[in-house]
Design goal:
Mean pLDDT: 94
Number of domains: 2
Number of helices: 16
Radius of gyration: 21 Å
Largest sheet: 7 strands, parallel
Distance between the termini: 11 Å
Order of helices and strands: EHEHEHEHEHHEHEHEHEHEHEHEHEHHH
Shape: globular
Strand content: 15-25%
CATH topology of the largest domain: Rossmann fold
Strand order of the largest sheet: 3-2-1-4-5-6-7
CATH class of the largest domain: Alpha Beta
Helix content: 40-55%
CATH architecture of the largest domain: 3-Layer(aba) Sandwich
Low-confidence stretches: none
Length: 367
């Protein structure tokens, strides 16, 4: 049996990693979780399932070099003291530290990449640490085949060290929707088409497009309401847009919300105009509660597992508002929408259940 370390930098829930560590514990492995940041959720979750959770002690220094050196020493020391065999590193701040540390430890270090083209879009693809991370990494897990192809063709990363492994979930970690709360929301908004958008409020997730869609629906005489879940730099701009369109009574800014499933279950459509994804979590959450989704063509892994018109609608990102409007107007039959949601549920469960991916991860634990 192996001693496994999950190493990351995260302040929120990470249900894919939670599912993996639980499954590794079930298989008899000893599991640690080391986080670069304070996290109000993970300590109790880890302790409940027999995972040792720790947070790196931070230092107040302005020098990036000194901070990097400090984090590397912390990780190297941790790996040696706890006889770690395998390190799964997640997210860019942790990944760079991990690939530097790998030269000073015996443990196998696997970098897990969760983004697709965000580095190029956001401008940090040119950063020295980012470019060095994937040059130095010996094994890289990506969560979609599209991202693997992107890394080979656009970033010049060797195909031999990239492995595609789907995200895997024990879907019980998502909890359950609060049926009473969901029904109360539906009752309060009776007669309205209930839209929901979940994600960071930034220009790549495009929550403004959801507001434009809401306006278009209401201008055409369709009563509609929008839930916006997430935080980000566009928050104030979106409030101004809502005010400009006089939609204050029809948009709810809910911020970061743990109870995502309840709001998804209370809704009629997940509208997801995002143009930057690797393997979108909220679409899987929508599948859990059988909610129809409208996503963008050519984004993330959607076209690797979704079928347009069967379990979802996959539309042009450049004409998202217009095409989503036509879909919603055309599909007012609750029975057909239920069939769409049920089909999505089956696709998500069949592809992303932890039992479908754990053996691929387990290969990295073998000598």
């Amino acid at each position: 049996m192996a001693t496994i370390l999950f190493y990351t930098s995260i302040k929120t829930r990470v249900r894919d990693q939670e599912s993996l560590m639980v499954e590794f514990v079930r298989r008899g492995h000893k599991v640690f979780f080391l986080n670069q940041q304070p996290n109000p959720y993970l300590k109790s979750i880890c302790e409940t399932v027999g995972v040792k959770y720790l947070e790196v002690k931070n230092i107040s220094v302005k020098s990036t070099v000194l901070r990097t050196f400090y984090y590397c020493l912390q990780l190297i020391s941790f790996i040696w003291r706890n006889n770690i065999n395998v390190v799964y590193s997640h997210l860019e701040p942790a990944n760079f530290i991990a690939v530097v540390a790998q030269f000073f430890v015996k443990a196998k270090v696997i970098v897990v990449r969760h983004h697709h083209d965000l580095a190029e879009l956001a401008g940090f693809a040119r950063d020295f640490s980012y470019r060095l991370t994937y040059r130095l990494a010996r094994k890289i897990i990506v969560v979609s085949e599209r991202t693997k192809n992107y890394m080979i063709s656009k970033e010049g990363i060797s195909e031999e060290k990239i492995y595609t492994v789907n995200l895997g979930y024990d879907f019980s970690v998502f909890g359950q929707a609060d049926d009473m709360k969901a029904n109360n929301i539906k009752t309060q908004l009776n007669g309205k088409v209930k839209l929901i958008t979940v994600g960071r409020l930034d220009k790549y997730k495009r929550p403004d497009v959801s507001i434009e869609l809401l306006k278009k629906l209401r201008d055409s005489g369709i009563k509609a309401h929008l839930f916006l879940l997430g935080t980000g730099e566009l928050h104030n701009n979106l409030i101004e847009l809502v005010t400009k369109y006089q939609l204050e009574a029809h948009v709810e800014f809910l911020g970061y919300e743990n109870d995502v499933l309840t709001y998804l279950k209370a809704s009629d459509w997940l509208v997801h105009p995002s143009i930057s994804e690797s393997s979108c979590v909220v679409v899987k959450e929508a599948g859990i509660v059988e909610l129809p989704v409208i996503v963008c063509k050519g984004v993330g892994d959607f076209e690797e597992y979704l079928t347009n018109g069967v379990d979802s609608f996959i539309i042009s990102p450049s004409h998202y508002c217009e095409e989503a409007f036509e879909i919603i107007v055309r599909n007012t039959n609750h029975e057909s929408n239920q069939l769409l949601g049920k089909a999505l549920n089956q696709v998500v469960i069949n592809r992303f259940h932890i039992s479908k991916v754990i053996d691929k991860y387990a290969l990295f634990t073998k000598d």
